[in-house]
Amino acid sequence: MSSSTTASVSTHILDTSVGRPAEGVAVQLAARSGALADWQALGGSATDADGRCKDLPALPEGTTHVRLDFAVEAYFQRSENKQRSENKQADAQQDAPANRDSGPTGVFFPEVAITFAVNPGEHYHVPLLLNPFGYSVYRGS
Fold it and tell me: Is 33 helix (H, G, I), strand (E, B) or coil?
């Protein structure tokens, strides 16, 4: 496998609600070779203290589409539990926005799936900017 015939992918997550990297988010990588081809699960990783996945699997030759699946529900549940334990004095009124319009687990987006097209030989850095009620992605450098 040479770099001129395969694309490569990296990602990181910034939790914009606290202005820090999102640590411990599981990320799964899948690829396919054509818009109608079946997805091939390649494996995954988890974000480190810097919010980065430094060991995502390599893409197979012929990859044309990539999907990154971010399991953010567990991250937000851990963050919420940590905040509650640090902030036991906070009143219920102050905590209300964190639970507004969320699902039964208290998380509005339990997972984020990003699908994008790739060209052989190019590197794709796809950052995820995340908060409890929204997210944004872009092709980074």
Answer: coil
Question: Which residues in the chain land under pLDDT 70?
Answer: 1-4, 81-106
Both structure tokens of 13? 């997550």
Q: What is the 3-state secondary structure (H, E, C) of 47-86?
A: CCCCCEECCCCCCCCCCCEEEEEEECHHHHHHHHHHHHHH
Q: Has residue 20 been placed in a domain?
A: yes
The radius of gyration of the chain's CA atoms, rounded to the nearest angstrom, is 17
Single pTM value for the model: 0.82
In whole angstroms, how far apart are CA 10 and each of 5, 7, 67, 123, 136? Answer: 17, 11, 12, 8, 16
pLDDT score of 141 = 87
Domains in the chain, number = 1
Query: Could you tell me how many residues make up the chain?
Result: 141
Which three-class secondary structure state does DSSP give residue 104?
Answer: coil
